[in-house]
Structure formats: C-alpha cells, structure tokens
Amino acid sequence: MSDSSVSERASAPDIIASPSISPFHEEPNARTSRAGAGQTLRRPVEQPATAARSRCTERPGAGSAGINLSLHGDLDAIEQEWRTFERRAECTVFQMFDWLAKWQRHVGSRRGTIPAIVCGRDDDARLLFVLPFAIERRGPVRCLVWLGSELCDYNAPVLCERFAHRLGAGVFVRLWRDIVGLLLASPRFRFDLIDLQKMPETIGPHRNPFLDLPVLVNPSGAHIATLAGDWDRFYAAKRSASSRKRERGKLKQLAQHGKIRFADVQDGTDVARTMETLIAQKADSFARMGVENIFARPGYPEFVLDVAADPGMRELVHVGRMDVGSAAVATSLGLTFRGCYYLLFSSYQDGDLARFGPGRAHLHELLRHAIERGFARFDFTIGDEAYKREWSDIELKLYDHLAANTLRGWAVVAMKAAFRKTKRFIKQTPPLWRAFSKARAIAGGLSQRTRRA
C-alpha cells in the first residue's frame, strides 16, 4: 500500500511464540479512577497521578520524549483538529476521519463501541500522533481495538512527519505503558485484553512504532501492483501471450450478449443503485464460498452506501461498474489516496455470463483506469487470493498485537493466538488451503439448499 510501503527495517518485529499476561493490570489509584473522556494525565503511570495529563519524561539514555497525552471518547470533540492533522500526517486511507466517523455512526454505535482516541502533543501543543482506538465488548470481555478495525484493511496510528525524530528507538514501549495507564484510569475505557490487528510494517517513511511491541503475523497478507507505462505494456508484462489471447476471446464472447461499457459512476442515484447491486452480488459470492455475508451485519450496507454517495468524499471514493447491455455484470468500490488506488470490494453477476469472465474484464478496466489517471500503485488490500499474486510485485505482511490485562482476558488471548497461528499455517500451505476452501464451499452449498428447501 502507498502509505505503508515495504522497506528494510533495522530490526525485525518481536514475534511472540505465546501470549502472556500484560503488566498493565494494576488497579488505578483513587484519583485517577475518577478521570473520564477527554481527560489528560500529567505524569507517567509509574508515578501517582495528581491531574488528568500524562507526560512521558526523559529517562537516562533514552533521550527526550516530551509528549503530552490526552484521551477523547467523542469524535466530534476532535474532528477539526484531526481533519487538519491528516492533511499533512502520515497515515493510511483507513485512518481518515470521514471513514472512521461513518463507521462509528453506522456500525459502532449499534454495537456499543466506545471511541477511545489517544492524542500525543509536544510542549507547544502540536499534534505528534493520533491513535484511533475503541473499546468493544466481545462476549464476556472488553477489548481495546482499532476503531473500525473490521472494515479497515490496514490499522495504524496517524503520525506527524517528524515522528521518527521525536521518538527514538525504545521510547515507544515506555510511552505505550503511559497510554495504557491513561486508558485504564477511567472505568469507561478499561479492558480485559488488547487486540490490535492488521498493522502494516511502515506508515509512510516511518517504521510502525507498534511493531516495537510483541506481535504475531496476521493470517492474511496484502498485495500491491506497481503501475508504470501504459495499460498495454503493463498487461503484456503481467500476462502471457496465450493468457491474453484467451482473455480477449472471452471478452468477445461477452460482447455478443450486449454492448460492453465501463462506467465511472458519479451520479448519486446511480451510485446508490450500483452499491446495492454490489452488495447483492457479494451476498451470492459469499454464499458460494461458504463464508459469512458481512453485509448482513447491522450497519454495514448503510456504511458502504454512505461512503460511496457522500459528495464530501468524492476525491477519495471511486465506484466502478461494467454493463453488458442493460445488465450490471460487475461492480466495484475503491479508494484513491496519495498515489494509490485501493480496491476494497469487487463483484460480478453469477449466471450464464459468468463463464465469460466479467469480473476479470472489470478488473482489467480498473487497472487501466488507475494507470491512465497516474496512480503509482494498485493495492488489492488484504487477502491472499491467487489473482492478486498474479498482478502484484509487492507483498505486505501485517501484524497483530495481543495482550491480556486480566485473567479473564488471558484465557481469550491464548485462544485467539492459537487460532490465528493455525489459520495462518493453513492459508500459507496451498494444499491445505485448497482443501479447506473446497470443503467450505461444499458446506456453503449444502446450507443454501437447506435454507431453500
């Protein structure tokens, strides 16, 4: 991805072999326990807190951090500062205020998600970073997670351009203890465990500071194609002559069923209709694969429709559709940000025309669209599907940080870590993944037939 590009790092992240209880479970003292949303903490958590402001002070050999922390449970309270900051800060498209605010409005508010936004400022009150966290209840435990994590393919902090100069090696680990202490100081933000998923190695030019914490490799990676030249040269470099001939033949067969037109959808009514088609097509696709239909979750369709149709997000959002005659045979939703095209959702119509590859033809047009508009990269986002590997020359590893804060949280962390390790092993072992995917699709087909009976 453009904002988390692959680079050589001075040291590898600390990959944990097994989870352990985090040392962040001490009960706050009587003074700190009364603090709430919008609070700040003046001293490191190791010292008694006398006010609501925290400062990561200098320690021998560590250099000066001089960072003041504040905690916000209301997105509206920091909207303008966040919007101003993101224009010059290093982040991914999924940390833009509009994206996360819409997620909270349509999804988070329905499930009781509490935003827990941590801001770090220097002594002149200039923002150094924004950490868009949230508290969510999952079964019997309360979790510290990234806000909107499920619909963010990359979760990361928002960092100022001088972040690396302000926090030297090792400083973030000590600062993290202060951040955790600030959250735990208020009953509203207390949690049993930390589950920060899908974190890239870098954010812009900065090494992701969260990789200084113990991490696991996420079960899924992400894939990016570097775009150069024109579409014809790019296509020839990625596909063999025989593949291109076969794909041209399929496209001609598709054209026999009606005029083919690629639509760059912008009209509000047309955008809504296209997104409704995409959601319906994805529901059919999920059913064929035997996986959960995410658009059946409360608020998800409303979120996608709001993102796609909001005129204020026009510069970030691209809605695409391929028509054959009067039928919308393929649809897509993408984001455009700092020289990169992010493909979030794409779908195609199942049925007689599916054998002619409308989804593949639509992807070709999206790649052509990105190249012609000068994008440097095409990010297929998270997922290790074979077609993504065929087009991509960059593979991103993503990381999770799991830590327990209570004994109850430890039990859940242990299960989550074991599950994710097993899932990654299966996904990274092609014969096992093919067998699992086939069995899942068979089970999904049987389930569909049972529901229809």
Task: Report the strand count.
Answer: 19
The radius of gyration computed from the alpha-carbon positions, rounded to a whole number of angstroms, is 23 Å
| Assembly form of the protein | single chain
Q: Roughly how much helix do the residues carry, as a percent range?
A: 25-40%
Counting helices, strands and paired strands, the structural category is: alpha+beta
How would you sum up the global shape? globular
How does this structure look, described?
Helix 2 (97-111) packs antiparallel against helix 8 (300-309). The chain is of the alpha+beta class and 453 residues long. It folds into two domains: 32-218 and 398-433; 224-396, Aminopeptidase (3-Layer(aba) Sandwich), CATH 3.40.630.30. The protein has twelve helices and 19 strands.
Itemize the secondary structure elements and their pairings.
Elements: E1 40-41, E2 54-56, E3 67-72, H1 75-86, H2 97-111, E4 114-121, E5 127-138, E6 141-146, E7 158-159, H3 163-166, H4 171-184, E8 193-199, E9 202-203, E10 206-207, E11 216-217, E12 222-226, H5 231-238, H6 241-255, E13 260-265, H7 268-289, H8 300-309, E14 317-324, E15 327-337, E16 340-348, H9 358-372, E17 377-382, H10 386-391, E18 394-396, E19 399-404, H11 407-427, H12 430-452
Parallel strand pairs: 6-8, 16-17
Antiparallel strand pairs: 1-3, 2-3, 3-4, 4-5, 5-6, 5-7, 8-19, 9-10, 11-19, 12-17, 12-18, 13-14, 14-15, 15-16
Helix pairs in contact: 2-8, 7-8
